[in-house]
Prior knowledge:
The model has no long low-confidence stretch (mean pLDDT 86). This protein is mainly beta. A hairpin with a 2-residue loop joins β23 (372-375) and β24. The chain contains 5 helices and 25 strands. 10% of the residues lie in helices and 37% in strands.
Amino acid sequence: MYGEPIGRVLQAALEARSESTLLADITLTEQMTLHGDPAYQYNSFQGPDYIVDQPTVQVQPLLINAGTNVISVSFDVVNLGTMVSEPLDILLIHVLPDGTPYDTIVTSIPAPGYRTTVTIDIDNPGSIGVGSNQLFFVLDPADMIPESPQKEGEENNTYMKNQDQEGFSFFIFDQNAKPLLPSDLSIVSNSDVALIASINNGLSTGGQFVFEIDTSETFDSPLAMRQVVSSSNSLVKWRPNISWQNETVYYWRVATETAGEILKTTLWKKHSFLFLENAPSGWNQSHYYQQKKNQYETLHLDSVSRRLAFDERVWDVRIKNELRQDFDYWVFINNTAWASLNPKALAPALGIFVWDERNVLFQNKGTDYGSLPYSRDLFLYKMDRLEDRQNVISLLEAVPEGARVFIHTLL
């Protein structure tokens, strides 16, 4: 009856309850009276029209720290038009203070008849999100539900703070701490070790902070220690009660304690140091997890042996089986031409190229192994001379172990 005159709507309601024997329905129908024009029609639309209700958008908690695990975003979706029984997609985009999109979330809700509250949990980006962040909302981003009025109904599906500003702004504060002393990769010889961290917000009035220390960067060994420390200013200090082991690398980290939440690994800030008795101050990077900080070229740190190893090298070797030009090459290694030019003038002959990946070439000094003088990277033999057969055998027997041999016939 949506869009029908009010008189017809009233008639339909009476007919729907006319056969009811319930006292409440009988009393209701007896009291239904229309004072006015039965042809009057309420304002109606030809389809739904969805908007994000601007005053209802909010984030929790109200004071968001970079150490907070989850940020809850809630808002009302209002339907200004007709109700339809279809799912309504919602697109939420989180943009960082530097303008970089951080997260994109797509969720679906039953399309509301009038109003419904939506809550979406978004991930806290941590330190990269410190500052003014933006949330952009788009209802029915793929235009799956036709809205009315046709133009205006489709154009008001985004959140607008005002006519000139799209998106909802919220602020993330940096209440996290970072290690100061001992410095990362330093050498400590004094057993009175104090772990000192600084709160990133220099105007902070302090808070609760978690320290952990261990001989492994995984912080799960039997020697691992954990302590919650209170601070009333921007510096946090902890002296672990440890029997320091000489020539041992220690890892320590610090993070803001968030009540009721498990600390995210990405929010820990950590340092390491070597405890070495009677040693001068200095730098050390002797332990496996310390060495993982490096960037290696043609080397890698093996996770099993925890030793440095050379990377495997990939060789691209291409061989031509026909040479059409007088000045042509027939072996290419990593797109570099080898094996000399085409010695067609000496045909019939055998051209032998020996590739040893350690030295690239098994070079010919001139006439090694009875070869014809031609080039340093080619061993050339006549095919019509008996003595060259033994010369070829001598060459092949002298080939280094693991080398590759390429033989080309010149006819």
